[in-house]
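Re: that chain you flagged

S.,

Sorry for the slow reply, it's been a week of failed gels. I finally had a moment to sit down with the sequence you sent. For the record, here it is as I used it:
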Amino acid sequence: MNGFKRHGIVHCSASQLNKWNACQGAWVAHYLFKQRVGSVSAAMYRGICSEEGVKSVITKECNVEQAILKAQELFDQKMMFDDGSSGKERENIDPMIRLAVEALEPYGEPEFTKGEQQQVSMDIEGDGWSLPFIGYLDFVFPEQGLIIDLKTTLRMPTTMSKPHQLQRGFYAAARGNQDVRFLYVTPKKAEIKSDGDPSTIMQEIKTTMARQERFLSLGDRDFLKSVAHVTADSYYWRGGERIRAEMFGL
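Prediction finished late last night. Pasting the structure tokens below so you have them in one place:
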């Protein structure tokens, strides 16, 4: 029995692999012990609500003014706490939706399956194992042969981060006949980026998953917890410090 099957891992994803790369201990806590470490934030909800607003405009469900109000109302519903930044993040929803809609307007109306994001999947194979790698596409424009993933951020990156390049590389490999770009939107500007070579990234994904499988083959979850590397200051532990201390003594 391969390591993935031994521990009930039935698929992989960009978020799963990025967590493994950033903090193996948090990955073990999440995927082997079902501890959802990492707290929600106003920035996370700002991104979710902004994307919903953008979607409702470019699919002609409502106009931009209505979409902003709906997105802000959704933000208010989700924000059951105030981490000190909720007011500012709420303000960012308005300009981010406007800028994203303007940037996406030339591509027309995207395609959705039953109103939801399209799932994309491909099997990654190694020595004695095979595992589906899955993801969800934000905006698919079939007539343009284009996929666009929306990222809201307070600062415009010069180059896409490695986690985002991994995500884009997988999308591009899985949908080889379509161009994949990421739209980054700040409160002041929007830019399209497409960094990273998909073939190189897919080889890195396969290599990393092979290391995961070998790690999982070493023993049961308690043994793996005892040998996992823990990055104690990783942002994946925000809100999960008690779990980290209980599991790893750090």
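What I noticed first: Residues 165 and 196 are 6 Å apart (CA to CA).

Talk soon,
D.
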